[in-house]
Write a structure and sequence with these properties.
heterodimer; A: alpha+beta; TATA-Binding Protein; 2 domains; 9-stranded mixed sheet; about 25% helix; B: alpha/beta; 3 domains; 6-stranded mixed sheet; 4-stranded parallel sheet; 20 helices; binds iron/sulfur cluster
Chain lengths: ~230, ~625
């Protein structure tokens, strides 16, 4: 079963492994016909398209759960939602065949919305948005386990635009991910924008709105709409 | 008004410690409740959420239609710094209300070294640290748990203590405060009403006096609402006792991340150093049927993949074989594993061993506590070397290769020979391993012997005893360490004597220790249970600033007729029984297990409460 779920703001600081354990426990409570792995310590093998960075909430996170026969998508969502805390919600479900590609291999990008309160710093940053997007290259320092690596973030950006409201700016940003190189953290991108604009960084509320895949034509589409040939 | 913490969370390690919203946490409306209770655990979230007592009382209070109970934990250093920087008050996990907005603030007292955290949590929560400074409408600060049996070192900070089993008295107390608030009673009057509840001690209604030599002369009521002696509460029918089958399930991994099924309360062994064994008398068991039902409910409500049986001495449970068998049957197909903690050396059913293994291989720990039979007789630990070797042999046959053995140093009457006996016992354990044929045993024998420092505890036969002085502790520890040097697969680890010293001071301390506590907190002592934050130098300074002497509290042998700071608390363990036990211990004479016959501990005066003495 392929599912899209919401990871609410309240739990945006829950790490990926903790989230996984929580969903596994909910599945155990749900009495749904779940397929367990074989072996001495049978468990539920969940697979996710791509973990969400800690601190970011998700509107439609993608996950796959191995199920036995005998349940419908609607029942699956209902039963699972009944045993999940309110801040975790299944929002769509679709049965998929055994030969459906792994969600991880489908992962091609994300759509984020980045909400910033309006003030001098964010006004300044946003005023340089178009210039920033027009750059051909922007080298950022990525902190990874193996140390600090310089990395050009521009290839990870598809497009974006700013919507300015009375008391906030909302940046809509589409990023590109590849199975090999992974994706770009929206927090890193935002830090670069502030840095480029010469403004002091401001804490943002960030949502991943969609996860993306590429269809047979190579176009970016919502992952949950992906059709296997 | 809820406190906003969002801007702090990205700056701290493990933000999930502060965000709540776990499955099964209460979603009651804070503003609609008639009375609000902040259940405070004076340690981090991971420790708090591993604690059974908190889950019980949280469930009971939230089941009351008119009350709300929310959890508050000690923030870790990084969060605390951010909170201080931004002026953010300490808040509850559920609705993020500041501590001072609650009607009742309740602390659980599990270990002495959490006391500075209590002061700090009150302060961070916008509540006056000392009871005497609290104004009419301020929250009432209460506390319970094992350390409440000697409440005096906290008497300046806690308005009322609950002594003994909390499940009934916490409801009565909450009701009195709700009623008092409704009637707009003065604070003092509410406290007086609390003092009339059985099992509640209100320290401001008592006065202490001292002898010229510094020992306590008396501690007596100064208000007619206060009883001269406060009796502990006992909840007798365990099948009727509340069991938290729907506790909050943490997102992040906590220390005990599983269902803890309390199969019984109390212990019949009568180990003479063990405070829990005395305080939680009598033994009360849940029935097998009830336990199976509770286990199923818990699995259903939490989705946990592991259950552990919890009690002071689970293998003493009268139907342990039947219970493990039925739980294994019922839970196996639900893919839930079973683990049995606190196994004892002596009565370790072979069946049980193979049962546990079938489901899950938990780590193997035993607590012989002392190195020689003589000293084990002194402390009334009914375990022989043969028992240990037999059990270990069986365990090693069944695929275990590591074992942890717990000891204590500084026990009354201890000699160097007793201490060297620890290494001898480690050798015997290794012998048990090598007695299993090579093909049958698992490679990589590991024997870990760990020794804590003896701490005299109230309501034990050793309550009059002195703790070893630090130099003596060190000498003994090094001596044992040396004795372990030639042993290949065994090693010896030991506790810091400085922490144990402070623990002793608080365990048996009187009212004056509350000044030391306050001063130490002022000087910056905090999170003393975490070795990296324990500041011995500041503690010693606090003693000095208060004109008090560590030796007087920790290293002084008390005479049997000295007035003890907890004499006005009645745990139904009579002083004559404790004296008798102490005198027997000096002769290395053992006392039988209560199941073989009543030993007259004092509880027998309550007719029908203890099954053992009927
Ligand atoms: S009353 Fe008797 S049987 Fe009961 S705990 Fe005390 S000594 Fe043991």
């Amino acid at each position: 079963m392929m599912l899209a779920f919401e990871k609410g703001q309240e739990v945006r600081f829950i790490g990926h492994l903790d989230l996984m354990r929580t969903i596994q426990r909910a599945l155990r409570r749900s009495h749904l016909p779940i397929k367990y792995s074989n072996g001495f310590n049978p468990h539920i093998r969940l697979s996710f398209a791509a973990p969400l960075s800690v601190g970011v909430a998700g509107k439609r996170e993608m996950m796959e759960v191995p199920v036995e026969e005998g349940t419908t998508p609607q029942e699956f969502m209902d039963k699972l939602n009944a045993v999940l805390p309110a801040c975790l919600r299944m929002v769509s479900a679709r049965p998929i065949s055994d030969d459906f590609p792994t969600l991880m291999s489908l992962m091609a990008g994300s759509v984020y919305s980045i909400h910033l309160p309006r003030n001098e710093k964010t006004d300044l940053a946003v005023s340089r948005f178009d210039d920033f997007m027009a750059l051909k290259e922007y080298v950022a320092i990525r902190r990874t386990k193996s140390g600090e690596n310089p990395c050009d973030i521009r290839p990870f950006i598809q497009d974006g635009h700013v919507e300015t409201r009375e008391d906030s700016h909302v940046i809509h940003l589409t990023t590109i991910a590849t199975p090999k190189e992974g994706g770009l953290k929206p927090t890193l991108w935002l830090r670069c924008l502030f840095e480029f604009a010469g403004a002091e960084a401001v804490e943002a509320t960030i949502f991943r709105e969609w996860m993306l895949a590429r269809n047979q034509q190579g176009d970016l589409i919502h992952m949950e709409d992906y059709q296997h040939a | 008004m809820p406190v906003v913490i969002d801007h702090l969370l990205s700056k701290v390690e493990k933000p999930a410690r502060y965000t709540g919203n776990e499955m099964n946490s209460t979603t009651k409306n804070f503003d609609e409740a008639e009375v609000s209770f902040a259940f405070c655990f004076p340690d981090t979230y991971e420790v708090a959420m591993s604690h059974l007592g908190m889950k019980i009382l949280y469930g009971i209070l939230n089941d009351l239609p008119y009350a709300i109970c929310e959890r508050v934990c000690m923030p870790w250093v990084d969060m605390r710094t951010e909170m201080l920087k931004t002026g953010t008050p300490l808040f509850s996990l559920e609705s993020h209300h500041a501590l001072h907005e609650f009607d009742i603030i309740g602390f659980t007292l599990q270990y002495e070294m959490s006391y500075t955290n209590i002061l700090d949590m009150l302060h961070m929560g916008g509540v006056k640290v000392k009871s005497a400074d609290r104004a009419e409408g301020d929250p009432i600060v209460v506390a319970g748990g094992p350390c409440a049996f000697n409440p005096e070192p906290l008497h300046q900070f806690i308005d009322a203590f609950m002594i003994g089993d909390g499940e009934e008295v916490i409801v009565e107390l909450t009701d009195v405060i709700r009623q008092g608030r409704k009637e707009n009673l003065p604070r003092r009057e509410i406290l007086r009403r609390l003092a009339k509840l059985e099992g509640v001690y209100v320290p401001c209604l008592y006065q202490d006096a001292y002898n010229p030599d510094g020992t306590l002369k008396s501690l007596t009521p100064i208000d007619d609402a206060a009883p001269a002696v406060v009796h502990k509460r006992i909840f007798t029918d365990m099948d009727k006792a509340y069991c938290p089958t729907k506790p909050p399930v943490p997102y992040m991994q906590v220390i005990f991340d599983r269902i803890m099924l309390e199969i019984m309360r109390g212990c019949t062994r009568g180990c003479r150093f063990c405070q829990a064994g005395m305080l939680y008398r009598p033994v009360r068991e849940r029935s097998v049927d009830k336990l199976v039902q509770l286990a199923k409910e818990s699995v259903e409500n939490t989705g946990y993949e592991e259950i552990s049986l919890s009690s002071l001495s689970s293998s003493d449970y009268s139907h342990i074989a039947e219970l493990t068998e039925r739980l294994t049957d019922e839970l196996g197909d639900k893919r839930v594993s079973l683990s049995l903690p606190s196994l004892r050396v002596d009565k370790f059913v072979q069946d049980t061993l193979s049962q546990t293994q079938r489901v899950k291989k938990s780590s193997l720990t035993f607590a012989p506590e002392a190195g020689t039979q003589r000293l084990r007789d002194v402390i009334n630990k009914g375990v022989t070397e043969a028992d240990l070797v037999n059990t270990l042999h069986h365990a090693f046959m069944n695929g275990w290769s590591g074992v942890k053995l717990y000891f204590m140093t500084g026990l009354p009457t201890e000699t160097d020979e007793d201490l060297l006996g620890i290494a001898e016992l480690a050798k015997a354990a290794a012998g048990a391993y090598y007695s299993v044929p090579k093909g049958q045993r698992v490679k990589g024998l590991r024997i870990t012997c760990s020794a804590s420092v003896f701490i005299p505890k109230p309501f034990t036969p050793f309550q009059w005893c002195a703790q070893d002085r630090p130099e003596e502790v060190k000498r003994k520890q090094f001596m044992v360490k040396d004795a372990f040097a030639p042993l290949k697969s065994a090693h010896f680890i030991y506790h810091d004597s400085a922490v144990s010293r402070m623990e002793a001071c608080f365990a048996v301390g009187d009212r004056r220790m509350s000044d030391v506590l306050y001063r130490a907190w002022e000087l910056g002592c905090l999170l003393d249970g975490w070795m990296e934050y324990f500041r011995y130098d500041l503690w010693l300074q606090a003693f000095q600033d208060c004109g008090l002497d560590v030796d007087f509290y920790a290293h002084r042998e008390r005479s049997l007729d000295e007035v003890l700071p907890w004499d006005h608390i009645d745990a139904y363990i009579s002083k004559s029984f404790l004296k008798r036990e102490y005198e027997k211990s000096l002769r290395a004479e053992t006392t039988r297990d209560c199941r073989e016959g009543c030993n007259g501990c004092g509880l027998q005066v309550l007719k029908g409460v203890c099954k053992g003495c009927e």
